[in-house]
Design brief:
CATH topology of the largest domain: Inosine-uridine Nucleoside N-ribohydrolase, Chain A
Largest sheet: 8 strands, mixed
CATH class of the largest domain: Alpha Beta
CATH architecture of the largest domain: Alpha-Beta Complex
Strand content: 15-25%
Number of helices: 12
Number of strands: 10
Radius of gyration: 18 Å
CATH superfamily of the largest domain: Ribonucleoside hydrolase-like
């Protein structure tokens, strides 16, 4: 890949594109919104596969259990939407280091699938969980870094006091592996940027409730989680990663090119000025994106 091709692939794509989604769907309710938003954006986004990502928190007994629960929730959501998309189980653990892949059906599928693309016609990878599956695919087949573009929700804003963010701290080795591979990489940071894309229970009930089976499901699981966690609002983090691919004329967010900025193992960032550049989203246009989300999910 030439540097010109890399820079071009960091920008919002033109025309209809092929996409795969990597998601820890059972972790939080925003994944379900992101999956639905992706599948409801068929005019531009052609979903080729969905990968279940590992996660480990009070909702799971292990990274493997989190991945298995995410796999089941992906199938559940596809059933609700009456959609058929290939779904693959992902990693059962995180990377041991930055050089050894975790073999899984998801990693193997991406490693194989990337061979059908090129820097001039890349496959877009939207990752909204720990990025283990994507790192493993790159380690299995370096052409993944040549023939794909990775859009990742992970880490915090670069001005934030640390990078101790769930998608990042679960597998820092994977994040570093992907970012150093040379793949065109777009980062949507959580705290300080994407955290502005939140919704309240009143908005959910007003805009989504009673519109269709999907919207009712999303309202119910979101309000249930908000009540359990005593939240007045809920950030729909993962929707923004899908929205980057729909961001024509900066309609949903703003971004710029920066030097490669890697997470370190002590939860900070390190700027690598001698490496390739990456794209950094620094602002979300909350109302514009929320309006499009409502329009598509309540059809």
């Amino acid at each position: 890949m030439t540097e010109c091709e890399r820079i071009k692939n960091l920008s919002v794509p033109k025309g209809k594109i092929d996409v795969v989604l990597d998601t820890d769907t059972f972790n939080e309710i925003d994944d379900q919104f992101a999956v639905a938003y992706l599948l409801k954006s068929k005019d531009k986004l052609n979903t080729k596969a969905i990968y279940a990502a590992p996660f480990f928190n009070p909702k799971s007994n292990s990274p493997k259990d989190g991945m298995e629960k995410s796999y089941a929730e992906i199938l559940n959501l596809l059933s609700i939407m009456n959609e058929k998309v290939p779904v693959f189980k992902g990693s059962e653990k995180y990377l041991d280091d930055e050089t050894l892949p975790v073999i899984s059906p998801a990693a193997q599928d991406l490693a194989k699938r990337a061979n059908d693309y090129s820097p001039k016609n890349p496959l877009y990878v939207v990752a909204i969980g720990a990025i283990t599956n994507i790192a493993s695919a790159i380690l299995l087949n370096p052409l993944v870094a040549e023939n794909t573009v990775v859009v990742w929700l992970g880490g915090h804003a670069h001005h934030y006091h640390d990078t101790y963010e769930f998608n990042m701290f679960q597998d820092i080795a994977a994040a570093r592996c992907v970012m150093q591979s040379g793949v065109p990489f777009i980062q949507l940071p959580c705290r300080g940027v994407v955290s502005s894309f939140y919704v309240t229970s009143l908005e959910l009930e007003y805009y989504f409730k009673g519109k269709n089976t999907l919207s009712d499901y999303l309202v119910n699981i979101t309000i249930k989680e908000m009540e359990e966690r005593k939240m007045l609002s809920k950030v729909l983090w993962d929707v923004t990663a899908v929205a980057y691919l729909l961001n024509d004329n900066d309609c949903f967010m703003n971004s710029y090119s920066i030097p490669l900025t890697l997470p370190t193992y002590d939860y900070h960032y390190s700027v690598i000025n001698t490496a390739h550049r990456m794209q950094y989203v620094y602002n979300i246009k909350r109302d514009e994106l929320f309006r499009d989300l409502v329009k598509k999910l309540t059809k």
